[in-house]
Automatic annotation (TrEMBL):
Function: Subunit R is required for both nuclease and ATPase activities, but not for modification.
Source species taxonomy: Bacteria, Bacillati, Mycoplasmatota, Mollicutes, Mycoplasmataceae
Enzyme Commission number(s) from the entry: 3.1.21.3
Name of protein: Type I restriction enzyme endonuclease subunit
The entry's keywords: ATP-binding, DNA-binding, Endonuclease, Hydrolase, Nuclease, Nucleotide-binding, Restriction system
Length: 1048
């Protein structure tokens, strides 16, 4: 039943208070006014009447003589000032989950009392009290207090929705003051709530910053909150009787060592942990599958605490026989992060046995000594090969962090010489065969689901941004890639042709080409590194000078340690002051963050330093005011590293899918005044960016089913088995000498002929492709032996086959190397990059090259026209139409020339040629073509003469077309104002996603465009307002689409 005053929005603070009370009453809460409550004094913060009503029926002996006297003593014991404020609060909630002991003075009788009935939440007494007067160092009147069984658990502070001078920040400051002046009320406080309207409600720890306060945006796991205001959602969701009791019982965390560190769960952590618990219970062996399910939560949304809350639920669970919890990571930094959290949470977990495990033996001993409980944290790499399981207990829950990376591989491989190699995933499952496995990941893949089960709960990147738990990610693409110089490329191609004619194998040539064109080799071009370093320096300084970065923290991600070191030296050359040592930290502004090796040159080795030094770098970088501002990384810190104040990443490396998400998420952590995390890429990664963000918004299985993959894999395997029907596999696998094994494979294949060799290569690579597409536990059991056998056979044969190649001569290789040094053009090119759109076209010089034929000039002109059309739609269309007409006229002349050339009589050929006027016609066409091309170049440069950006020129052209099409008659200054506004909107929108694929971005874009159309009166001279507006809106959206479509 909806409260009566939902008919209109509350305006005053009093109306807001009444509305909240009505919402509580609709949830079954009792309501009392503060001045109606019977208390001995205003210093009393308990409601003894409610406490008595709750305890009396549960503990009849309290009523033996004078129940009220017992309750008074219990309340006094609870309020005894024997601890500091934060310690008191922590200790109160720690004891609340168990029972408190009360010894009656007059007869010494001992009572074990539960202050809350956690098993039957509706047995508790829930009451909301408004305008409660409380005495302390100063008298205060609190807006709302939520009581459970007479104990004040939640305090609300309200501000008027209509008062522009008050807001949540004022409400927060007032609560901070109340806590100092009336601490007795706050000692039992679970959390506080701030509210200044039905759409602005946050909850959090009373002494924490306002930025840490969160919104509760879900009523229940199943129930939709659509159409409800946030205030209603908060009270129906967070303050549901069963939910608030469960939160108080299991979802308030305190650090063991520092009681001031207190965290209240967020709503996705609450629902996620409970759903994961239910899934584990359902799938627990021996009756279940052992696949506990997957929690899919975007990077930075607090998955570690979701794991912590889940672990508490598991360790307490009698129905699961109080299982042991094994936390497994695949990166040292992640396991260290988990260790730090869990080892500081033993009080919360109610289990002191929380250990970091360094070997299989240590884990075996730990599990043997326990029948229940214990939390063990390790890396999956610690699972050594062994025939004996570590434990056959079924009350072991394995929770894998970032489960997509290394724990879905179960394929045994045969090493050369007959030995087997057991992958980590299989080692883990073989070691704990009866355990139940749970996966936590930010980037789920299909193989992950087949190991851990289906996705049980998800919390996407869009949801996290919308809730304010993480910030938006903004992509800026800068020109850092290289273009090949055609003339030098032709020389390289000619050298490869000469090598082929000299007898070099095609395979040898192909391999040499691959090595020379690897991205890492291109990234390391010296001139390019100089340019990238200079751009990073200038870009970074501009951001700092313009106040666009909160603390000046930046990360440079490079394509390898050597390239990182080269960029370090290039930056040092350009900004030597950045490399002066700070007296306080002993560090320079720029540091190399990577692992050193013995092969490093001395300076690089010394700069990187020891592991201990690298750990210190991580600590100092996280200090927002430290002088260490710029970290140059290759692989370290790209996973498991949290630095909230980091807001800029320079990405000189191409990542895709999960790797890209993991990397760019380093800058998505929430931090005060941080509106977004900026990723500056020196490669055109827009398509990968878009695809990766779309994937973390979903997490469903791929289009192919497991049945289809298995069927295709078996078909390929059948062909291989037919080809090797008479190969003695058993004997082969028993051989322990690799040379003998190799000889057996080579002799067999060589004896089958050339056709067999080609078929084997195709059949094996196709089989491996299908198998690896979905190599899970079930497929491994059925087909893993075959996969391992043919992989070993292929390794022997491919090595032998490579030996038969005729290599490229050393002289030719050296000549190619000399050409490759100059093949890349590092200078600025005729390329415009704005946001998501990158348009390339031939430069004027390239077009005017005297070596160009007429056909070549037309081809280059067409490329220019296509580039223009992507930016200036109408002009580009007209340009291409004119060029197409010219092309048709050229082709007609060329046909006529071909006909004339076939005339054998020279005099007759000359006469007809002169009569046709071909030469004059060609010259006229050339003039028209050159004028057209020149106009195209002017159009592409038009914005410069007006001191405009390229985008502004695009939008102005489009608005001019509207003005003419609909006869608006608007003056140019009004079009210019509209241009500036629409360009500003585009700059904002494009930073946070592709409006063509992100519905939330598209919706926001449409709404803002409607506002601008109204603002600039793009309709007032037209009677068909609605129709005109729709046309304009669609054309502008199409304009935006042209700026993104080439990166799809």
């Amino acid at each position: 039943m909806e409260p009566e005053n939902t008919k209109r929005k509350p305006i005053t603070e009093e109306e807001l208070e009444d509305y909240i009370i009505s919402l509580f009453e609709s949830q079954g809460y009792l309501y009392s006014r503060g001045n109606e409550i019977q208390r001995e004094s205003y210093y009393e913060v308990f409601l003894l009447e409610d406490l008595t009503r709750f305890l009396k029926p549960k503990y009849p002996k309290l009523d033996h003589f004078d129940c009220y006297s017992d309750i008074r003593h219990i309340a006094d014991d609870l309020q005894r000032e024997d601890k500091q404020f934060y310690d008191f609060n922590k200790n109160f909630f720690k004891n609340l989950s168990d029972e408190i002991t009360y010894i009656r003075e007059r007869d010494g009788e001992k009572f074990s009392i539960s202050l809350i009935d956690f098993k039957n939440p509706t047995n508790n007494i829930f009451r909301v009290v408004n305008q409660l007067a409380v005495e302390g160092s100063s008298p205060r009147r609190v807006d709302l207090v939520v009581y459970i069984n007479g104990i004040p658990f939640v305090i609300w502070e309200l501000k008027s929705p209509s008062d522009k001078y008050t807001d949540l920040r004022i409400a927060h400051q007032q609560l901070q003051l109340y806590q100092k002046e009336i601490p007795a009320l706050f000692k039992y406080n679970a959390f506080t709530v701030l509210c200044d309207g039905i759409g602005n409600v946050r909850y959090g720890v009373s002494w924490e910053t306002l930025e840490s306060f969160a919104k509760w945006k879900k009523i229940s796991d199943e129930e939709s909150a659509e159409g409800k205001d946030l205030l209603s959602i908060t009270i129906e969701g967070l303050f549901d009787k069963e939910r608030i009791v469960k939160l108080i019982q299991d979802f308030i965390w305190f650090s063991d060592s520092n009681p001031q560190k207190k965290i209240i769960c967020r709503y996705p952590q609450f629902y996620g942990a409970l759903k994961m618990y239910d899934s584990i219970k359902k799938n627990l062996k021996p009756t279940g599958s052992g696949k506990g399910g997957i929690y899919f939560g975007t990077t930075g949304c607090g998955k570690s605490f979701t794991m912590l809350f889940l672990s508490r639920l598991l360790l307490k669970s009698n129905e699961l026989n109080k299982p042991s919890v094994l936390l497994i990571a695949d990166r040292v930094e992640i396991s260290e992060q988990l260790c730090s959290l869990f080892q500081s949470s033993t009080d919360f977990l109610q289990d002191k046995n929380v250990k970091s495990i360094n070997s299989r033996t240590e884990l075996s001993e730990s599990l043997k000594n326990l029948e229940t409980g214990g939390v063990f944290i390790t890396n999956i790499q610690k699972f050594e090969e062994s025939e004996e399981p570590l434990s056959d207990r079924n009350n072991i829950i394995c929770i894998s962090d970032e489960a997509h990376r290394s724990q879905h591989n179960f394929d045994v491989e045969y090493k050369e010489g007959g030995k087997q190699k057991i992958p980590f995933g299989k080692r883990l499952h073989d070691s704990l065969p009866n355990a139940t496995y749970v996966g936590f990941t930010a980037t789920p893949i299909d193989k992950t689901m087949d190991v851990f089960g289906e996705i049980v709960d998800r919390y996407t990147m869009d949801e996290s941004i919308d809730d304010g738990f993480t910030v938006k990610l903004k992509l800026e693409v800068r020109k850092g890639w290289l273009e090949i110089q055609d003339d030098i490329a032709q020389q390289v191609i000619e050298k490869y042709r000469e090598a082929r004619e000299s007898g070099a194998s095609g395979e040898a040539i192909e391999e040499d080409q691959k090595l020379r064109t690897q991205l890492k080799a291109i990234c390391g071009v010296k001139e390019r590194i100089e340019k990238i370093a200079g751009d990073i320096v200038n870009h970074y300084k501009n951001r700092v000078d313009n106040g666009e970065t909160v603390c000046g923290k930046a990360m440079i991600v490079t394509h390898g340690r050597d390239i990182g070191y080269s960029i370090y030296k290039a930056i040092r050359e350009k900004e030597p002051s950045w490399f002066e040592v700070d007296k306080e930290t002993g560090l320079t502004k720029v540091q190399l963050v990577m692992t050193r090796t013995k092969g490093d040159e001395k300076e690089m080795y010394d700069l990187i330093g020891s592991d201990k030094y690298q750990k210190r770098l991580a600590e100092i970088f996280k200090e927002n005011e430290s002088n260490f501002k710029i970290a140059i990384v290759s692989d370290k810190w790209l996973t498991g590293f949290d630095c909230p104040c980091l807001d800029t990443m320079y990405l000189d490396r191409i990542f895709q899918d999960k790797q890209l998400i993991q990397t760019i998420s380093r800058v998505n952590r929430k931090y005060m005044r941080k509106d977004y995390g900026l990723v500056v890429s020196y490669w055109p990664i827009q398509r990968y960016w878009k695809e990766a963000l779309e994937k973390v918004g979903g997490g469903e299985r791929g289009e192919l089913s497991l049945e289809e993959v298995i069927a295709n894999t078996k078909d390929c395997l059948e062909l291989l088995n037919k080809a090797f029907y008479d190969f003695d596999r058993d004997t082969f696998l028993k051989i322990t000498d690799r040379e003998t094994q190799s000889e057996m494979v080579i002799n067999y294949i060589e004896g089958k002929g050339e056709g067999f060799k080609a078929d084997f290569k195709e059949q094996y690579t196709t089989f491996a492709k299908w198998y690896d597409l979905w190599a899970n536990l079930e497929m491994s059991k059925e087909l893993g032996e075959d996969r391992a056998f043919y992989k070993l056979v292929w390794s022997y044969w491919s090595r032998h086959f490579r030996k038969s190649w005729t290599p490229i001569s050393a002289k030719t290789k050296q000549e190619i190397s000399e050409h490759m040094k100059n093949i890349f053009l590092v200078e600025d090119m005729a390329q415009y990059s704005f946001g998501y759109l990158t348009v390339s076209f031939p430069s004027k010089e390239e077009y005017n090259n005297k070596k160009n034929s007429e056909e070549e000039k037309l081809r280059k002109g067409k490329k220019l026209g296509q580039a223009i059309a992507k930016i200036h739609k109408s002009f580009g269309k007209s340009f291409l139409e004119r060029l197409a007409r010219l092309q048709a006229e050229y082709e007609a002349i060329w046909k006529e020339q071909a006909r004339l050339s076939e005339i054998e009589d020279p005099e007759e050929r000359k006469r007809q040629t002169e009569e046709s006027g071909i030469q004059e016609r060609i010259e006229a066409l050339n003039r028209e073509r050159d004028e057209l091309i020149e106009g195209g170049y002017r159009k592409m440069e038009e914005h410069k003469s007006k001191n405009w950006t390229k985008e502004e020129q695009v939008f102005f052209d489009q608005l001019q077309e509207f003005n003419s099409q609909f006869n608006f008659g608007l003056p140019e200054d009004q079009l210019l104002a509209f241009t500036r506004d629409i360009n500003h909107l585009w700059q904002e929108i494009k930073s946070f996603g592709d409006p063509n694929t992100r519905f939330s971005v598209l919706s926001n874009l449409k709404m803002e465009l409607y506002k601008l159309i109204d603002k600039h009166h793009f309709y007032e001279n037209d009677d068909n307002y609605n129709e005109t507006t729709i046309v304009i809106l669609e054309e502008l959206l199409d304009c935006f689409k042209r700026m993104t479509e080439n990166e799809r």
